[in-house]
Amino acid sequence: MKRPPWIAVILDENTSGDGSRYEISKGCFMGVRDAGGIPFGVPYLPEIINIVVEEFDGLLCTGGRYAYPAEWYVGRQVSNAPFSERFAIEQAIIQSFIGRDKPVLGICAGMQLLAGVKGCRLWSSVREAVPNAIEHDKRGSLHRVSIAPETRLAGLVGQSDLLVNTSHFEAIGELSPSVVVSARSDDGVIEAIEVPSHSFALGLQWHQELFAGNDHPGNGIFRGLVDACRASPER
What we know:
Helices cover 26% and strands 26% of the residues. By secondary structure, it is an alpha/beta fold. The chain has a single domain (6-231), classed as Rossmann fold, CATH 3.40.50. The strands form three sheets. A nine-stranded mixed sheet has the order 4-1-5-6-13-12-11-8-9, with helices on both faces. α2 packs parallel to α3 (86-99).
């Protein structure tokens, strides 16, 4: 019998402080575990990149606040987020996973990284780009997202809309041809994406890990990640 899928979970860091500590919601590990996978936290060490790419079945890129390259932003927008050594490590890992068609799930910052790698461009501020937008960077609040029919996301959650949390000030502003939108909030802001040419490459703007352990339809996304790892020819 094969072992359960191993999922590499990119750790977050305390960029709101001095950036000296890794930190992450326990829900990231619970969500993967409850879906049947085994999660492992991944630090920002260059020498670990090849090990993660070779040994792990799936990748979970978590939330966080750090700046992406200037060319990833629409027009001349500039990120207000701090620099992080996380970017180079995470970019190298996600590009290798995508190149080998290994399953990838990006959450919040992880979704924006997936989008950028696939050629999308970002808004550095949702409030400035969409003046009538809801307050997306509001911890503790919920809002509705509409799920695009006939997408992988729709199949995983089994319904046409979800109530989700919101904690982001950046967002995808321009899509590339290789990415499709699988969810939007009522104000039109992109809340989920997927890459149809890959077996499993999804991004969520909300933090699904905060619903881990609860009866939330979105937890089917974690199951989708683990099931895709089981089905991968790399195993």
